[in-house]
Amino acid sequence: MVALSISAYPCYEKEMPRKAKKLGSIRLTEVAKLAGVSPITASRFFRNPEALSVSKRERVESAAKELGYVPNLAARALASQRTEVIGVLIPSLTNNVFNDVLRGIYDASEGSRYTIQFVNTRYSILQEEKLLRLFQAQKPAGLIVTGINQTEQSRAVMEGMNCPIVQIMELGTDPVDMMVGFSHYDAAIAAVSHLIGLGRKRIGFLGARMDPRVQRRLEGYRKAMKDAGLFDPSLILTTSTPTAMTLGGVLLGDLLAQAPDLDAVFCINDDLALGVLFECQRRGIAVPDQLAIIGFNDMEFMAATVPTLSSVRTNRYEMGRDGVTMLIDAIEGRRTATPIVDLGFELMVRQSSTLRSA
Amino acid sequence: MVALSISAYPCYEKEMPRKAKKLGSIRLTEVAKLAGVSPITASRFFRNPEALSVSKRERVESAAKELGYVPNLAARALASQRTEVIGVLIPSLTNNVFNDVLRGIYDASEGSRYTIQFVNTRYSILQEEKLLRLFQAQKPAGLIVTGINQTEQSRAVMEGMNCPIVQIMELGTDPVDMMVGFSHYDAAIAAVSHLIGLGRKRIGFLGARMDPRVQRRLEGYRKAMKDAGLFDPSLILTTSTPTAMTLGGVLLGDLLAQAPDLDAVFCINDDLALGVLFECQRRGIAVPDQLAIIGFNDMEFMAATVPTLSSVRTNRYEMGRDGVTMLIDAIEGRRTATPIVDLGFELMVRQSSTLRSA
DNA sequence: CAAGAAAATGGTAGCGCTGTCTTTTTCCTC
DNA sequence: GAGGAAAAAGACAGCGCTACCATTTTCTTG
Question: Facing residues of B117 across strands?
Fold first, then answer.
């Protein structure tokens, strides 16, 4: 481990005394001496043990263990001109979606020699560009970025970085390097078509924090509604406010004000959907009889509600997991044949869109 | 940024060519040359600009900007024998509680020169010890650890680390260095006393993933129930299963089986509480008339449900935020007077424990 | 068993920066 | 304007490791 600061221009109060040199500090030299080999041989042991003869290998190993040697990664990075860091750029820590993605990334990278260094772009492509430049300066082993909407400069930086890069969360035709995601457009079409197929005509769209992926879901909604001849702009309500469960209720109220004959609602995420469900309980709107609800992402709680909530399952954990796995494989020269992986989605039909209480 | 790998004994496939040296690489020397100063002066500019005369300061600054200089942090760490990394050990990425804590940590450290390097202990104190050793080897500028239940070895490692350390999430009498948290014991007593004060007699306890902090909440529950002469072990149901909203419903069913006269339930977190609420809807149990519910943490959604759910607000974001802030202050020699900060808690009384529908 | 190829090992130099100490410059004050 | 103190700037060496190349040892094979 160790991660050096991400700030480009730090500024200390004062210089520190060069303290207690050598004080019990076990360097590679010490290990080499104890093992009776040259430092470079000891060095090789840690990087490529296969290159040593069995006898030396054993001697270095036991010497290292005896001395409790721990490599100095800063020195290693300086000498080798590279690090074992995987940089991860994610737009939010508030949004639970990324929680799952991060979990996948951490789980899959555990046990590997790589360290995850994640940073938060706060849904700003300018912030993303800035963070990308900082990563660039440090030559990470690989990079995971969210989505496909980077600035031109960001793209240029990435292309010049000379390390594998995986874009996650969605798909596009022009990857910087590799991609793991799914089509938000198609997923939205599936959700809306499901509602249309059930005979719903006045299907609303509820969106918050309209990031690029949510925009694409809106496009899918538009497409499906237009194809069915049901499109009506007054059925759409979006806000740039960050999403929250309480917001779901508020938005439903607003949408009902502009479209009182609403008979279904497609929420761009599950938090909104649950907020809508509670608002319906509050207003005495029967779900799904009067209003069908479908969410997006299929968080764990969607199966626990009353009525259970329909949603579109997205493979968030898997995107993280497969993303790093592909990345690490590429770093180590084992590139997969297909640079673009579609993890798909699954329509989870539950009571909120189908159950009709007789 | 940059973070060097956290693996102690990495192992490369092969040595890499020492590629394209000097190739446009802007080093401090180049900046110094352009600015017409010595490298060491340029170095000082980045660490302590106050020490330079105004003219040199401006010259170095513009030279750095012109060349697009970015410091090599590995070299810096090697030469200065320290890093600008703050290590964060957190037990889970699944539990949303830590999401909020992490958010506080990231928000408060943004703009500082420190990089957050967080690792996941998975609720294992052995894993924690292992990760602590890895951090130790790299001399982080500071450390944030969760809770007060470390192994003896972990404590020894921390005490020998020679860097500020903040323990977050709870309080104890014997901090390694600093602490930011609150009393889970007192918070549980407050929640249970509230229910007792409302005349509830058969108050259940529902717990999942019994980590040390949850154990202390159980102790608080025991204390309050015993003091009121209401304690009955059959009112307690715990499981080591990780918490989830679906689990809330299951546990309520089990608890009702062993205590059918249950009239209130204290859930050790909000997910369980919401799961319980839905299970009540499913079983036709009136909340709060037949069963009062109180959760723990006061997640955002607790105010959005029907009925709204009572909870104990914990200042998770603030624990993260204040934790790093204290840590950074200590790193930079501005130690606060009080090493132990109690962020308290707040009883959020809502409909699920009070409303009586006439 | 000699000769060449391959494998294993070692010597050297430096990655880019900063701590320490020394030298130079600037700023006072009388 | 001289003398001393403080501030500013610089020289030097080295942090711990690894890339590169040179060297030695081991393994083949005719």
Answer: B87
